[in-house]
Amino acid sequence: MDGPCLAACTNPFDGTTWLGFSSNGHKLDATVYVATWDVKDVTIDLASPGWRKRPWTPTMRTVSSEHAGDLGVRALHTTAGRFSDAQAPGGRYGSIGWGALPCGTYGDGSGRLTGGRREWPVDCKYHRSELDSATGSTRWRLSGDATGIGATVNVLVVVDYPAG
Questions:
Q1: pTM (2 d.p.)
Q2: What angle do CA 144, 35, 134 make, to 5 degrees?
Q3: Which segments of the chain have a pLDDT < 50?
Q4: Alpha-carbon distance 161 to 95, whole Å?
């Protein structure tokens, strides 16, 4: 693996990586969440004025491809099979939901991510994943009919916002 391990991975990236965020010198009227999973020794350095860090241990739920379809198989970071549905609850204070059809290498089909601000279409050909947020309690769902092969291990990832 040549890059950082994102939320769709089950095994952490073994190495050092960094991510940069910038407000281009402008004050942000928003909260920015930075969450890591299975990462050791996280360091966050702030260089923008007005930004502050507040430690947060998020609650997160994942639905892996083998628990979200009619049938399939997984070996390491490759899954093959037929996908139909993945569901997980969001947190009381809101959440972020990410859904991806398991057909990144090869496949056909489509679906919808629901539970956030709107319903998002996904398909195996051009737009296989989507991310959304919800401000209150919700039920996230990625549903559809897709058959394929890909490196997506988790088809649905939900990260809860903290209180306040």
A1: 0.75
A2: 50
A3: 1-11
A4: 5
* Closest-CA residue to 60 (of 40, 77, 79, 38): 38
For the chain, what is the HEC assignment?
A: CCCCCCCCCCCCCCCCCCCCCCCCCCCCCCCCCCCCCCCCCCCCCCCCCCCCCCCCCCCEEEEEHHHCEEEEEEECCEEEEEEEEEEEECCCCCEEEEEECCCCCEEEEEEEEECCCCCEEEECCCECEEEEEECCCCEEEEEEEEEEEECCCEEEEEEECCCC
Position 66 scores a pLDDT of 73
Interacting residues of 126 by C-beta distance below 8 A, sequence separation 6+: none
Q: Which of 92, 72, 98 is nearest to 84 (CA)?
A: 72
75-97 pLDDT, tens digit per residue, is 777 888 888 999 999 999 999 99
User: What gap in Å lies between CA 115 and CA 63, rounded to an integer?
Assistant: 15
Q: What are 115-132's pLDDT values in tens digits?
A: 999 999 999 998 899 999
